[in-house]
Design brief:
By secondary structure, the chain is of the alpha/beta class. It is built from ten helices and seven strands.
Length: about 260
């Protein structure tokens, strides 16, 4: 008779294990595993392992956001387990450099939970030296596979720089102009272009320029990009539709051979 409680407990445990195994994958906690990179102490089973897959995952998450079918950022049943798994380290598969605008919540619009995105937010998505160092850290030390420089529609920072037309902005807002130096000169307004259309064009050009600037300023990112270990991708988030428009990854221009 004493063996009966033990038998019942064992049977119940087995049934619970079978029930858990039958759950759909999206309902299971994302269990941590050892990362391949020596500097990435933690990863998730479904983390993309190359730049193409990483960009595809961001696109898929954004599609869920646009359709109102978020999964990763709605499943709260495993929050405690997720926090516990991330205590030991992080291995975000993507770096997102985007604007500080409160309407651009990158984790939601890419439908990615904690531990998957390394976010750098500065007005006008124009990273300063600290932002650049942060991007290098995530790419080299944490093993991120894609770096997205994402502007957005109706960007107040771009508008402020445009309307200043070269005149210094007050206070420390001059830093916005410094971060977008050359934007207006490289992208003059067409005589037949209204202010709204011109602003939208500047927002896209700024995202592209900032992505290129990262490569120009960082030998480390150039090395990783040249080796196809990281893609640096300009993008634009459209507030009204919720869609993120990805552009072609910035390419590293090979140095001309030396002449002897």
């Amino acid at each position: 008779m004493r063996a009966l409680p033990l038998f019942l407990a064992t049977t119940a445990f087995a049934l619970l294990a079978q029930e858990h195994a039958a759950l759909p994958s999206k309902a299971k906690p994302h269990a941590p595993v050892s990362a391949a990179a020596a500097h990435s102490p933690a990863a998730t089973l479904d983390s993309p392992d190359n730049p193409s897959a990483a960009l595809a995952e961001l696109g898929a998450g954004n599609a869920r956001f646009v359709a109102g079918k978020r999964v990763r950022t709605l499943d709260t049943n495993h929050d405690a387990a997720m926090r516990a798994a991330l205590v030991g380290g992080q291995a975000p598969f993507a770096i997102v450099i985007t604007c500080s605008d409160s309407r651009v919540p990158d984790a939601l619009l890419f439908d990615q939970e904690a531990g998957r995105l390394f976010t750098i937010r500065e007005a006008g998505n124009a990273p300063d030296l600290q932002g650049l160092a942060s991007a290098e850290y995530a790419a080299e030390h944490l093993g991120s596979k894609v770096l997205v420089v994402m502007g957005h529609s109706s960007c107040g920072a771009v508008k402020a720089v445009r309307e200043a037309a070269g005149k210094p902005l007050p206070g420390n807002l001059w830093a916005l102009q410094a971060g977008m130096a050359g934007l207006l000169e490289s992208t003059p307004q067409d005589p037949n272009e209204d202010a709204k259309a011109y602003g939208a064009r500047l927002e896209e050009v700024n995202a592209r320029r900032q992505a290129q600037t990262l490569l120009d300023r960082s030998a480390l990112l150039r090395e990783l990009a040249a080796a196809e270990k990281v893609w640096i991708v300009p993008a634009l988030y459209h507030l009204a539709s919720g869609k993120v428009q990805f552009f072609k990854p910035v390419s590293v221009v090979a140095a001309a051979p030396a002449h002897h």
